[in-house]
Amino acid sequence: MLKFLFKDSVYYFFGSIAFQVSGLVAVILMMRSLKIEEFGVYSYCVALVALFAFIADGGLSQYLIKKITQSPRTMVAIYREMQGAQVYISLIILLSLSVFAFAFHALDEAYIIFLLGAGVVISGYVTPMFSLMIARGEKKQIMKKDFYLALGRLIFVLFVSNYFPSVLAFAFCNLALASISLIYCLNIRAIPGNEFMFGFSLRRESIKRVLVEGLPFTVLMLANVLYNRVDVIMLKRFAGVTEVGIYNGAAQFVFPFMFVSSVLVSAIFPHLSRHAESSLLLGKMRNSSFWLMTLSGLALSLFLFFFSDIFFRMMFANKFNASIGVFKVLVWYLFIVFAYGTFSNILVVKNKTILLFWVTVGTLLLKIALNYLFIPGYGAMSAAMSTLICEALLFVITLALAWRFS
Known about the structure:
Strand content: under 5%
Number of helices: 14
Helix content: over 70%
Number of domains: 1
């Protein structure tokens, strides 16, 4: 079973590693070309937009993968309904984000938020198409998509960092990258058998049914986004953009490594869905995937911890020295998240998403409370410590719940 999961993961890994490496290079170039305060502003805008970006980061996509995997004969009908719901949500998000950006922010920040938001809406529109490819096992198409996006990102960021190093120009890069995803999907649609991919149903009954059935996934994703981004927003409010820059200077080199977890989950989740009704097979899958993910997370965290000083001083000289301590705390976030990734996905396939939601909400409230108490005095380091404490609590709770239901 472990060998089977590893083989499936390899296809997703090579594309994802190209995309994530390009992301790390882009962040390094951005951090080198912007002041810490400017990087803090950009990080804040990205975090704020992420509150609306759950439509592109999962939301209904797990619902689509689960439904198609369990009922492949109804694939086209399910996809059309899902895409219709995605269009409906995207229009609402674009309108809401535009009003929010220009009503509550200075004009320069509003433009940045709007550009980032437009990219999110485009990404949200094509997300069901990529989810469909995952559900159908089209691993090579996903890998090619990641390679194209990686190349596009490098070209855009290299150009901007050398000729127009500004926060607004880097926001344009995100919009251009989302456009590449759309062009790629247009090319995929030209393949025989994929003509239905840009079709969607806007029937009120269909949209309502998908939104109701997919609501647990969407709400869970929104709660996760809030959980992961609230630190940056609270840091700006209580400590200023410099502390945001210090915190995100570390976080930008931790959170991108979550792609390894995403790769493994992309390979594991369809198999968990297929075996959801068999306790024996689900148990074997749970044990195999747990060890695969836990050992991967431990190796990654150890590597990043011991090479952090060398990396930061080699890349930024003394510019981001204040981020090194924060980084050494946040790397253990990866180990914990990898360890409970299997258990959270078991709860999803066992239709216990609502439990995950309440667990996430509970730890989110704890995180907000910890940040509120300690950020004014300890800044970025307190945000890192609160993240680690809450992740450890999440691990214990999801482990207990998954063991009970599998």
